[in-house]
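#struct-pred
JK: can someone run the complex with PMV? inputs below
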Amino acid sequence: MSYLNIQEPLSTNHEHYGVVSWQSPSNIALIKYWGKRPIQLPENASISFTLSEAITKTKVKYRNRSSLSEWVQFSFEGKKEETFAARIIKYLDSIKSYLPWIEQMAFEIESENSFPHSSGIASSASSMSALALCLCDIEQTIYPTQIDADIIRKKASYLSRLGSGSAARSVYPGLVAWGASSHIKGSSDEFAIPVSSQHSLFNEFHDDVLIVSAAQKSVSSSAGHALMDTNIFANTRYTQADRHMELLLQSMQTGDLETFGKIVEDEAMTLHALMMCSNPSYILMEPNTIAVIKLIRNYRKETNLPIFFTLDAGPNVHILYPDSIAQEAASFIEKQLLPLAHNGQIIKDRVGPGPIKLN
Ligand code: PMV
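RT: done, structure tokens with the ligand placed:
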């Protein structure tokens, strides 16, 4: 693929060193990616809002590698983290054919999240995209070629995807699609693309994440994706996802919040239903997840206000609503939902501007 623009290894007599830093956000899927085939390709197209507050900041120091034993040092929030370091080494090893020079460099990587580590919020989308953006940036510095910024971002999305599927979407702002879909021009299984045809009310959408439980998930996303291979509803699900994509995009173009909310909630419920009917079955919702969902539905029925929920692969509830009802939503959330949150934790987020290069 030409956009991957794979460089020759570096000639060893040149010394290269420097530091780059990027912050990259998390995202919340409206149409979920659930089920994949090798290598990290989605079984159905997905679409998400890139968020604004839940971000990872990653700093990468690089210099020529002087011995085989030194390659990657990793610290998270100021502490050496061996488990994360092992994951990063595995990741770098898996992408070295796209960035052959990375084997010739030694890296010191420092990372931190804006959201509490123990909040149960998944950080792989923000952390993998922040790292991929740093690597693409280093590549531009050490190979002085003139490549279009759009092409570099596409490569960053491709490389992010290999770290964590949903991370492919985090490299762009706003509404972002990943996965080939007949409903989205230019879409691909290999990288994500920004989608800009939506009604302006979606540019100011809120996503308040109510932390129901901060405990580590009993079944990881990778294990969950793998269980789709034997899920008897898998094909029906992929057909449904395609139809949902079509309906969601239509509703977002016209600003039809009722249809938008219906599809988004169906997606959340389907994701968790697929987990429950996997073999072996498992449940990631907690009793308070269901209590919060019921309260949101009741409140919507009583007030007719467009407030909806979605779920990631975990128990925490993402509360979605347009900026026009921010005041009513805040008071409802505070009075009725916050008492059900773990330690009163909520992350007030919204659709965001995408990754930022830091000085
Ligand atoms: O990117 P992964 O492998 O962590 O999978 C993400 C799966 C969901 O968050 C449940 C859905 C999605 O599209 O983000």
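RT: quick notes.
Helices lie at 82-95, 124-142, 149-163, 221-227, 234-254, 257-276, 287-303, 326-337.
The chain has eight helices and 14 strands.
JK: thanks, will look after standup
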